[in-house]
Write the structure tokens for this entry.
Amino acid sequence: MSVIGPIVAVVILGLVVWFVSQPLRSRVAAQDDLRDDGRVADLRAARDAKYRQIRDLEMDYRTGKLSEDEWRSIDRELRGEAVEVLHRLDQLVPPQQGAPIAPALPEPPSAPPANDPR
Amino acid sequence: MATVGQACLIFALGFSIYGVAASVVGARTRRESLVRSGRRALYALFALSLTAFLITEFAFFTSDFHFTVVATHSSTTTPWYYRLAAMWSSQQGSLMLWLTLLAGWSSLCVVMLRGRLRDVAPYAVAVLLGFGAFFTAVMLFSASPFTVVAVAPVEGVGLNPLLRHPSMMIHPIMLYSGYTLLTIPFAFAVGALIVRRVDAEWLRATRVYALGAWLALGVGIILGARWSYAELGWGGYWAWDPVENASLLPWLTGTAFLHSVKIQERRGMMKVWNASLVLATGTLAILGTFLVRSGVLDSIHAFVQEGSGVAWFFTALIVVMIAGSVYLVITRRDNALKSESRLDSLLSRESAFLGNNLVLVAIAFVVLWGTFFPLISEALTGQKEAVGPPWFDQYTVPLVLILVLLSGIGPVIAWRRTSWSRLWRSMRAPAILALVVAIGCIIWDPANGDVSAMIMFVVGAFAIGISLQELWRGTRARQLMTGEGPFAAFRLLLARNRARYGGFIVHIGVAVLFIGLAASSSFQSVRDVRLGVGEQTTLAGYSFTYVKPVAKIETQAGRLERITLGSQVRVTKDGKFVANLEPNRGYYPAVGSMLGAVSTYFAGESTSEIGLQAGIAEDLWIAETPDISSLMPVVRRGDAVFEKASSQGLEPKARAVFLAAALNGLTTQYRENPPPAQFRVLVSPMVFWIWIGSLIVVIGAMVAAWPAVGAVRDLVRARQAARVAQELGRA
């Protein structure tokens, strides 16, 4: 029976044990702390989702699914919710110079869009 | 090699179990080092399973018949590309593929998370490693690909001839990718429910993998349908077979989830429904694997006879998944899964999505009931009775009609509420198009009185009209806003609103696909006929003439792979030449047979190769079953000669030369005195559109799944942030 197979198996085992146990041996282990930044990530995702909704709403208006009044009313509501999300986000992570920039929010509806496709 | 492969599986099981424990304990005690170690166990699972996978593939590629799985599922006469694919025709190899894909997709998912969902991820990793441990254990205790014999047989049994089709090299990988990708949303749903965080971040992470799984599963299903159409010799592409249904079930619930998740994202509603859907979809993915691999239900796609050993493993896993899912949803329904708002109006996109969900789930229920009816009937009456395609059609056809109609109405209704007058204005043009199609159907009656097919044409035209109108309106609106040219506006419209407009493209594809299905099944002309050389039959205005027989011996690596008997059939219409079709049947030798030297070549598997002329309007399809009974006296004489020669001590080399001469004589005899052959001839309109519709669906899904510009930028920023952190750590 060949001994190469068992030797290769032992080498693989050694490598995997070394790889998997590395976090337990490293200096990071001393700083054992599973920081819960889930709230921030959630708020960022909620912010992005809110922006998408505002853009989609505008597209619904421009493609004739909403009247201008409906668009303004819902847009105002969504922007209020977005501001609320940003406010909560800023409380957790104060905005810093050079921080990752959020996707740009479209301009609020102030006047009926020019060249309304309807 | 087998020792190393087996060791890899044992290590994979050990590290999977360790990873489950490390992740759960790490998450509960908030020890990041344990969580990271658990995550590394997932990467280790991938490395180990990939190593074991490559060892198995190498054994198949080199025809190492010491491996039992290779000897029983491949041969030296199997072409090298089919030898590689032969691995997943076996129970052992397909489980190996499942494990490797699971570990690979899961590792990719965890890498792509880049620190997001930090509280959910450890539990998700534990669930994924749990699946890994399960599949590793099934292989180790019931179906190891590394079982070897001391003395290798000279030749293997060979790959089942039915599986020697190009789509079979990709179809299982896509199907299993779909199944394994579906376990990721399942795992993250379990994690999110455990930590009670079913929020926007969870939705974003889940949706991407659900969409990827949906796409992979859809491609797998279509490739399977294409294989059935080209290879099984009956002319159909969908037979409501249990294995086909098994792949359709998670696809249906996955489709429902991809729609209803939008409602949760926008309105914070339907959280219980979404969590239940994603958990059910994950469970159905495992159920699908179970049906393919266990052999508990009779299927034309079940190429596994040794499956009963794994049935109990899978049953236990499915019971645990269902029980755990029900527990998590029930215990979280009043807090994490509590709805944040209510339905404002019945005339809203939320309502349309809800309707679409109910229809999809109803179809899934019908398919589930019909698929498991043999087991249900056996449990209740003691007799296994199956329901056939008419039963499925009876319930699914009306539901699909409603679904296609809703896919048209949904996109033109605004979120929250809309008015009837505005809805009518939005769908006026597509409704007129549908009306024109309806009038055309009534006047020309192309569906030969098949009302459901006519309704499908009408609602399909409506859905296509709506989606095209939305794409046009969006492009036009963008042009007016930005002054871009039409092509630039269209491209940027898709780029900036991928999910929305990718979804519209998918809707167009689905409608085209269903129109193709309705047309090909309603207008199909079929004839079974026995023809001699020079004789002809007519069908749907075409004449099919049996011009001449075809008979040849095909070899691979210097050995006989198969004997092919077929014909050349000339197709004409109104006296004009249309096509030459060459259907044939391949006869593969039975390995290890006790039959005579010549007759063994007609005792193994045989497979039909169709003659096909595919076109935009219709497909001309022909399959042949040669009458080999007239050859059998010659075959028996050949057997007798070889038996006599063997008893006189014929050398193996001389025997091979004589055998080749005998088989050549046999094919010459078939060419010179061809007996009448049995033909199945089909003229199927618009089958081509099924494949075109599928392609459109794939394109649409890829548009929807492609990372948005912002996501790519975030990813780049995350990479940069990780690099800064790493470099600061080194300093």
